[in-house]
């Protein structure tokens, strides 16, 4: 489920080539998840690292994560 969530979120990423020749990316549904790098591939890798850290921290702190493509990583109180 986690791998599918990361894949679905990465498919929603937006990439931009900046004036200085570097790349910027973000996932709009995941506030604060962004990356920048010299190449598109490095930017994608940095974005995925940022996303993974954001998910882990969010779950650890009990934040509600967005449901992406029907994948819900949030714990329900009934299941606990």
Descriptive account of the structure:
Pfam families: UPF0150. InterPro entries: TTHA0281-like (IPR049389), TTHA1013/TTHA0281-like (IPR035069). The chain contains two helices and three strands. A three-stranded antiparallel sheet has the order 1-2-3, covered by helices on one side. The protein has a single domain, classed as Double Stranded RNA Binding Domain (2-Layer Sandwich), CATH 3.30.160. It has helices at residues 2-11, 40-61, and strands at residues 14-17, 23-26, 34-37. By secondary structure, it is α+β, with helices and mostly antiparallel strands. A hairpin with a 5-residue loop joins β1 (14-17) and β2. The chain is elongated, with a radius of gyration of 14 Å. Helices cover 40% and strands 15% of the residues.
Summarize the entry for a quick read.
This protein is α+β, with helices and mostly antiparallel strands.
- Global structural class: alpha+beta
Mean pLDDT score: 95
How many helices? The count is 2
H/E order of the elements?
Answer: HEEEH
- Biggest sheet layout: 3 strands, antiparallel
Strand arrangement in the largest pleated sheet: 1-2-3
Q: Name the overall outline.
A: elongated
Question: What would the keywords be for this entry?
Answer:
single chain; 80 residues; alpha+beta; Double Stranded RNA Binding Domain; three-stranded antiparallel β-sheet; 3 strands; elongated
């Amino acid at each position: 489920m986690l791998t599918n969530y990361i894949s679905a979120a990465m498919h929603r990423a937006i990439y931009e080539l900046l004036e200085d020749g570097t790349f910027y990316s973000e996932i709009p549904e995941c506030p604060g998840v962004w990356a920048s790098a010299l190449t598109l591939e490095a930017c994608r890798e940095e974005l995925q690292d940022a996303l993974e850290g954001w998910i882990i921290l969010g779950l650890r702190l009990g934040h509600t994560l967005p449901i992406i493509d029907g994948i819900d990583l949030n714990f329900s109180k009934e299941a606990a």
